[in-house]
């Protein structure tokens, strides 16, 4: 069963991290949703700190030229 609170914390962390890179809330939200979807697909249970991992991926995906939602 998926922990909805964990998913929300991951999305929020990815969103904040993306906003540190791009000044566009809509782009940051798209990145955050993409990050969470990708992490679910890869397996959250394998991550030591899923929230920190989501934040790091959110920042990386928001960078110009990345293959993330903001590209």
How is the secondary structure organized here?
Blueprint: H1 4-21, H2 25-42, H3 50-62
Helix pairs in contact: 1-2, 1-3, 2-3
Description:
This protein has helices spanning 4-21, 25-42, 50-62. The protein is globular. The protein starts with a helix and ends in a 9-residue tail after the last helix. α1 crosses α2 and α2 (25-42) crosses α3. The chain is mainly α. The longest helix has 18 residues, at 4-21.
Q: N-to-C terminal Cα separation, in Å?
A: 32 Å
Q: Average pLDDT across residues?
A: 91
CA gyration radius, whole angstroms: 11 Å
Q: Encode the helix/strand succession as letters.
A: HHH
**Tally of helical runs:** 3
**Biggest sheet descriptor:** none
Strand content: under 5%
Which terms summarize this structure?
single chain; 71 residues; 0% strand; globular
